[in-house]
Amino acid sequence: MTVSRQNGLTESQAKVLKTVSDFIAENGYSPTAKEIAEILNITQTSVFEQLERLEKKRYITRQKGAARTIGILSQPENEKPVKKSDSVKLVKVPIIGTIAAGAPIFADENMEGEILVDESNIGKGRFFALRVRGDSMINAGINNGDLVIIKRQPLAENGDIIAALIDSEATLKRLSLTDDEVFLLPENEKYSPINVTCREDFKILGKMVTTVTVL
Amino acid sequence: MTVSRQNGLTESQAKVLKTVSDFIAENGYSPTAKEIAEILNITQTSVFEQLERLEKKRYITRQKGAARTIGILSQPENEKPVKKSDSVKLVKVPIIGTIAAGAPIFADENMEGEILVDESNIGKGRFFALRVRGDSMINAGINNGDLVIIKRQPLAENGDIIAALIDSEATLKRLSLTDDEVFLLPENEKYSPINVTCREDFKILGKMVTTVTVL
DNA sequence: AGAAATCCCAAACATATTTCTGCTTTTTTA
DNA sequence: TAAAAAAGCAGAAATATGTTTGGGATTTCT
């Protein structure tokens, strides 16, 4: 049997993804591997492998060891050919973890990979990239699964979208400096601003310079 | 300690419900009993009991034996107990100046007085009141001389009527957020929208929650 | 063609999670 | 004020669920 590809997924993978998607649509919570397996008439183990592949390809997110935590990511655009032109200067930017645009998620220094970004898009400086989880910045066009590129800097201006540490957890928010208070603002009405005015454990990691959607 | 009721739920139950709701909003999947327990600093068993009660009262749904399957039901609107006079909670709101609903007028911090407002009308938060001058918001039912109560918040939603500072002057307008521009809209054809997209001197003071007509 | 990836399996393993049992204390209701 | 409901706990049972191991068969890539 030929395994054709669509959107970078094989038929099997697409089938699993669709099953998950349909299940969530119908039930409001994600299925277990076993449930997917029963629907597709394959084993749990196979499903598990497919989920791993789907996660690696950034079609879904999962929480290690936690039940029913599959999240479906917005589909990355169909493969964009990488432009190669000698006027483009690509800069390596390390991907160092996942950042919350919802609940803060611990940002460990484990490098997840690297991406190449045209220098003209981000300017000069020291950069790193973080994968976004959550939906608290959707009104700023930053979606679950996106990569954000952060320029390391300890200070930021009012209105900047920044990556910050709060109590050793990283979060992506818009910075709001009022007369005497400092807030981190989500870009989603569902969430509330975080007052960091007097928090000792608050630290700016850097300023977001751009977002990248990676396949 | 008195366990007061709201919406037919006890404080404890409401706390659990809110925890679940917040968790789902932030993570996209429902929490386990253990996770709720950790957040609220009680035991899993207690949480389990609370979830049973919440289910019985039709605030949530669950699937027996399945992990993370709590679903939140829309609040039953029915039983709204008539408020007794002793349940009215009046909140002091300072009147701190005059705000323009026409040409912006300087909003000084001189307190002009205080009014008492029933908390149920405005919710919780930090409030202040401003006297309106001008007629630019008449189509929104806000007239010259009215008092408007503003909830302090640095962020507002599209369509909110907000009090904002522009170049140190306060004004009351409806907020309009388009794809990439921000406008303040008067509610009177005589006046024109103000584009504040790139104005550094623009700051949201808060959102109007109600008006009070004082004779 | 050979290497690498995909796809699938059975059988276990480890732990996450719900659920039960029995008991204490406090608050509300009748 | 007595009974009922609510709230909580410790500890453990029961099972749901993610994960690992060690394969085999097929397809895709180079």
Give a written overview of the molecule:
The structure is a homodimer of 215-residue chains. Chain A has 215 residues and is an alpha+beta fold. The first copy, chain A, is 20% helix and 33% strand. Chain A is built from 4 helices and 14 strands. In chain A, strands 5, 6, 7, 8, 9, 10, 11, 12, 13 and 14 form a 10-stranded mixed sheet that branches. In chain A, a hairpin with a 2-residue loop joins strand 1 and strand 2 (9-10). In chain A, helix 1 crosses helix 3 and helix 2 crosses helix 3 (44-56). The model of chain A is unreliable at 1-6, 76-89 and 102-111 (pLDDT under 50). The interface between A and B is medium-sized, with 24 and 17 residues. Chain A binds a DNA duplex (30 and 30 nucleotides) through residues 1-3, 10, 12-13, 32-34, 42-46, 48-50, 53, 62, 64-68.
